[in-house]
Amino acid sequence: MIMPKLNQEKFIEDIIKIIDRWSFEQCAHCENGTLISIDGMLDFKCSKCGKTMNPAEYLGEIAKTVFTYREQLENLKSKREID
Question: Which residues partner with 52 through β-bridges?
Fold first, then answer.
């Protein structure tokens, strides 16, 4: 089953956005949230929202995006089976 193009494009854009934030050390949750080092540790804190950022945060955001996309696929598939 093929998802409508618009949803596929949004999915790809959302994943790229998270990966870009990770690559450029920006907050996974905030728009334009910059990260500051927490007392020389490997973890960082967002200067905007105050959340601690580490690789698990970015992976979690990617996982949420994938889960949402899969739910949309399943809902579309179920709807088409009913129709």
Answer: 45
